[in-house]
């Protein structure tokens, strides 16, 4: 093993010596700051602490009318890391991540809906009360289902993950259906008062599909004709080279005749 490089720990002493020998006229401004806050002298790094997933649950206590809040620690298996990854930051996991992964795995098309990308403080729980799924000032999306499910798990006694998921999904489907009905009714009322709408997305998609089908049909006809021509040429070529049955063989010279 080689010697330890302590150059970074002695950077202040090096700067003072260079000033003393006249390498530069003024000391750098960071010399006094390093004197007040010196670099760490410990050269051995300790591995980062592993964080466990803590879940809040409400359970009913026998003989008591009031449920009790319990914090469960989900022990996760600590995998041995390679030497090159031993000091990397520890991966942080939250319960919402597991709920979010499950919801969007079952509803992938929710990710295709237009979204407003705005940076927030991440403290939506302070501005929204997830006793209900629909919140004022917030658009209904998959994140609403995740937060509603998490609220049910944290506040309803003896609530399981599957039951909370079913309740949140049922409320979500009902609100989505209500939005679709309101949208159709608004369009019908507008048309009744003289509004003229353009083609819908479905109609535009059907037109594009019909154009593509006609283009493909024309291409298929051309390819079929070319294939027939190649097949005919391939069948007729051997007869031309070796001579068909209608072709007469040339007469042999008299010297070779028997």
TrEMBL record:
Belongs to the mitochondrion-specific ribosomal protein mS23 family. It comes from the Eukaryota. Residues 234-258 are annotated as: Disordered. It is found in: Mitochondrion. Keywords: Mitochondrion, Ribonucleoprotein, Ribosomal protein. GO terms for cellular component: mitochondrial small ribosomal subunit. InterPro entries: Ribosomal_mS23_fun (IPR016939). It comes from Aspergillus ellipticus CBS 707.79. Component of the mitochondrial small ribosomal subunit. This is 37S ribosomal protein S25, mitochondrial. One of its GO terms (molecular function) is structural constituent of ribosome.
